[in-house]
Request: fold
Amino acid sequence: MSNVLIFFYRRLKNSSFNSFTRTLSKLQIRNYAKATSFPDYYQNPIFRKEDQVKLIADSDLKNRATVPVKPPTVSETSSVYFDPLVNKVINHVMEKGNKRLARQLVEKAFENIKRKQIERYHLASTPEEKAKIELNPKDILYKAVENCKPLLQLQPIKRGGITYQVPGPITEKRSLFLAIKWLLETTDEKERTVHFPEQFAWELLEASNNTGKVVKRKQDLHRQCEANRAYAHYRWQ
Amino acid sequence: MFTRNWKHLCRRYSQAVTFRTSEIYPAQHNENQIGFFYTIKPDLCKQLFNHGGLPKSFMKQTKTFTETAIMVRQPALDVMDCIRASDMNKPVIRYVLYGEKGSGKSLTLAHLLHYALEEGYLILHVPWVSEWLRRTPRHKEMTNSQTKEGFVDLPLDAAEWLLHFKTQNQALLKNCEFKISKDYEWSKREKTEAGSPIAALVEHGINRVKYACDVIDALLLEIKILSNSKQCKTFVAIDGFNSFYYPMTRLNTPTKKKIKPEEVTLTNSFLELTKNDWNNGVVVLTIDQLAVPDENQESFLPRYLLYKKGFEHLDPFVPIEVGRYTDKEFLSCANYYRDRLWLRGPSDLETELKFTSASNPYNFMLQCAPL
Reply:
């Protein structure tokens, strides 16, 4: 779910003077695209209780204990309410580093979703209908993002002076990024009097229902890819 | 998908016992029911709180939960016990509810209002004083008082309050005949005779907005006389009383001169009412930090919020602190929110929320919102 930058590096094992062995190259997963103030060999913090329990159980703790560790950010808590996708969405909503405002807006949007869904729940007459209504705003967010993720993307490739839009594969992280970006873009096309949380709640509800502007945009992209199927071989020419 | 329905049923059954009480009459609430929620019937709710009385955030919750439920808490029970134990022939006792922001003062007052209605009191309820003195829409209707020199009237607010009084006491005004003791002459052609019912006075005030503030003065005087002569027992409830004593209001005369609270006729009417020179009544006041601007919200204690004048006016009074939720109340509230589908998730949530909200009722409600 996080931006993954795969890093290969060699590390000297902390061993005795005589046995001078080279370790295997290790995979370092970085959460941030740009370089941070910590050197690359710093490992990412493990702040979730279940991950820590797993670490102790797998007895990997010994290896990890020797490597310096980066501090977790303020929002990386072991709280029951921490959710990586929600945190990511808040980061995308944030402008100029105002995380507090971004968090408030997203929380307000969740509150609006919840109120609407509870209203629908009370209006539904039969238990079957009631069971179909999703009341947890986080689940609605997951569903909405899932429904908005494109499966292919168009890449501009220049052949003989003409730029063709060639359909190609898309990575998981880019797919997620596009889904969140489109959701926020459609929310920005709101009326002046409507506030962001309300519009965002509305967009999320529609997207989780597989209707609405964002899902339409994804489907348009898929249609374009299908239409440009003929140029697919340009990727390898 | 059907499992949730089944779990929901189970949950309702097992938890219905632990956070609700079926006792809907406040007079019968006692210590056994502390921490439990009781629901107020919708028409009663409308009668009491149509023009204010319940906080706005609470009104939004009532819409989502499809019911108005108030928790039975110790401060309300204390006041009810004191009322029952007090001698009505002695001068009125003033009870002052104080507490931090969001600790439940307005809702305690609402609970007591319901109690007063059930016990047959004549209710004089000011939903929020700052609405008159500090809420200034684009054009606030203010006139210079005709009868009092140098005072300012708020005719529309006064008329709205008279309507509120009429709705709350409609049963009592219909059944009992409360007669006025003297003539009131409003103008050359308008006059309210002595011996006409109070309802007529109220009607006059609502119809002729120009005289509404003077009608309120007359009405409060008459009610005091009625209480003294034991024709009715009165319950006075004022929310945000300390707003009367804050040095400035947000009102300006057309000449841009700032008006002090004591220059408003409504202030003086209600300050007269809260004096303890009458008997056969109860006065419950709430003092709130939110009634004054942010710079003067350092403390929630009575002496700070009432200033010297207010404290001396009210002295002696019975201070009642409305505190945060106890552990039992907190669990009960969490169970209620789960039942109303407002909160979901594992039960570890409660320990975390108790810590982050510090068991403050309002903060708890806010923090459950996005979850």
